[in-house]
């Protein structure tokens, strides 16, 4: 196989999951498979999982939560046992499609985007979209509706019903965890938070200084099943019906203190209710020019964050390298510690600490935190690049400079640094390319850059192919020219080095006997 | 000009120079010869403070070598290294101009004038704009000599100025040394090869395992 063919093969492997590879179980075979295996595998995420599914604080490793109990009850009805499969929350639906588990049950709201992608069973919980603000702002928002949020910064979770509701009105700030929207609201980074009442009760109402101003609408948690397995959906619907009818569902929800009047409807759920819940989801918008414009905006953010972060990393890295090589013992230790700590811990964690951890004392904007966080992280890598660059300058040149009466500082500035920087340029360019890609991590602190934009759009248009390829093309368009530049610079430097080596090699001096 | 008294230098407890006492006279050329590893380079490096020593003292002119006098002594004493140590990112001319410009703070035109004259003196007028990597070893060594002379030092220390060169290039460098000697430049030349200094040196010191083994007129000491 030629190298090109091999490459094409690898590329197609890389792109395959972006497409639509779904396990095609023949109709009616899903339920058989579950019964044969004797387990109902259900997907969820224990992170921020209280009261849905979470580790029992009294018995670590043991899962509790109303969904755990419900899963067990449903499995019992099907004559099997239940088994929880941990999966990152934002990827539950793609994992369901890939066949990682049989169903998803994890506070999965019935949204237009999901209705077009999975089969929803009857609901097992009716939640309210609850709006919270800081107490001092509450009097101004007595009868809130979505329109009243126009232009306000409103925090919510990605891919949520609230996110769909806010689209086009509010300035949405997207979080990946359930705690952070409320801490940011408290600190004034947002104006309001719109999330399910269960989340609001656990994570928002518990914070002094925040207040509920109203519920904007009802929504439903339902179990998601693969569209190719309607018989699984039918079986679960029946099971849920029995569980609700005999009051077991109520008991489970009461056990987690989330039973309320809204849940009364669950026991008498009709086909008409189901049709109303699912609604008439509009056909997904086609991936088109409007999305590409959003992607270009995302790419601009990616580029902006990367360029500014590098503008911090390069001088800070140079400073660290200088201190490490020429500073006093204490300064040298501090610089080494900086480099080791920043290189030895995940950048994700550093971003998190900078944005959320430091918030009580230092309230950085998301974009600022992204730039500073990545910049400080990359400074540690640039420090090593410059150190290598300085070590590549022959020691004889430094000594010659000192012998000419230069101070160490002058010798560094005039002799060592100009050469070290030239040595470092190809590596710095390569690091910049890596940074372009690492910048996608800043979505954990609510910055919507290119990758985040891609995941948002992919959910929206219900396919990963177009958005994925466009996103890849944009990253490639940014990094490829830089890659060429780096290689060209590298070759140029190498050429110069070879010329140096090609200079006539001095012969070894003969060892001469010296008369004594 | 340079007086060394009882100089002792140890590297990790190993004595490399053992109570060395020698004097190098103003306006004279002194040669230090000896086998590899006997401490010749170390002796030179102690004089301009590139190496610290453990015991004894060194006086250059009226200044005793120490941390406080280092900078002034380095201005008085130029040094040329076996491996040249030319600044790779600068042309020959810029190498020679660098220290006069940034250490002596000469004007650009004055530094340039001086550098042009010195490169002519070492026979490299035509190679002014060349970078070190484009120069032969002998040419690089001559640029290094011009660079040291550009600071108008009172004495010049040369560490194996010809050791890395083939015979032809060696002759070019020796020619430059000869003309400097004729002008009465104070020089201390360290070398493996007595032949290089035989015609130039006024005085020779033979080092053996860090001690002065012989001292006197070159004709007698260098057989
Ligand atoms: N930085 C150092 N650390 C430890 N030992 C050293 C160091 N520099 C030199 N030495 C040792 O000191 C001794 C004298 O070294 P020096 O370079 O002065 O010898 P030399 O006479 O110049 O030799 P050559 O003719 O090979 O240049 C050698 O044994 C060498 O290994
Ligand atoms: Mg030596």
Number of strands of chain B: 10
Outline of chain A, from the CA principal axes? Answer: elongated
Helix content of chain A: 40-55%
Task: Predict the CATH topology of the largest domain in chain A.
Answer: MetI-like fold
Low-confidence stretches of chain B: none
Runs of chain A in which pLDDT lies below 50 for 5 or more consecutive residues are 16-25, 503-516
How much of the sequence of chain B is in beta strands?
25-35%
**Pattern of helices and strands of chain A:** HHEEEHEHEHEEHEHEHEHHHHHHHHHHH
Instruction: Look at the structure and give the mean pLDDT of chain B.
Output: 91
In the CATH hierarchy, the architecture of chain B is 3-Layer(aba) Sandwich
Quaternary organization: heterodimer
The strand order across the widest sheet of chain B is 6-7-8-3-9-10
Q: What is the makeup of the main sheet of chain B?
A: 6 strands, mixed
Give the tally of β-strands of chain A: 10
Distance between the termini of chain B: 27 Å
The ligands found in this model are: adenosine-5'-triphosphate, magnesium ion
Helicity range of chain B: 25-40%
Query: How are the strands of the biggest sheet of chain A laid out side by side?
Result: 4-1-5-10-6-9-7-8
Q: What is the number of helical segments of chain B per DSSP (H or I, 4+ residues)?
A: 8
> Domains counted in the coordinates of chain B: how many?
1
Shape of chain B: globular
Offer a concise description of the structure.
The complex is a heterodimer of chains A (516) and B (223). Chain A has 516 residues and is α/β, with parallel strands linked by helices. Chain A is built from 19 helices and 10 strands.
Task: Give structural notes.
Chain A has 516 residues and is α/β, with parallel strands linked by helices. Chain A has 3 domains: 23-124 and 221-278, D-Maltodextrin-Binding Protein, domain 2, CATH 3.40.190; 126-219, Periplasmic binding protein-like II (D-Maltodextrin-Binding Protein, domain 2, 3-Layer(aba) Sandwich), CATH 3.40.190.10; 289-499, MetI-like (MetI-like fold, Orthogonal Bundle), CATH 1.10.3720.10. Chain A is 54% helix and 13% strand. Chain A contains 19 helices and 10 strands. In chain A, the strands form 2 sheets. Chain A has an 8-stranded mixed β-sheet, sandwiched between helices. In chain A, strands 2-3 form a two-stranded antiparallel sheet. Chain B has 223 residues and is of the alpha/beta class. Chain B has one domain: Rossmann fold, CATH 3.40.50. Chain B is 35% helix and 27% strand. Chain B has a 6-stranded mixed β-sheet, with helices on both faces. A 4-stranded antiparallel β-sheet of chain B has the order 2-1-4-5, covered by helices on one side. In chain B, a hairpin with a 2-residue loop joins strand 9 and strand 10. In chain B, helix 3 crosses helix 4 and helix 3 packs parallel to helix 5 (137-149). The mean pLDDT of chain B is 91. The chains are: A alpha/beta (516), B alpha/beta (223). At the A-B interface, helix 16, helix 17 and helix 19 of A face helix 2, helix 3 and helix 5 of B. Magnesium ion binds next to helix 1 of chain B.
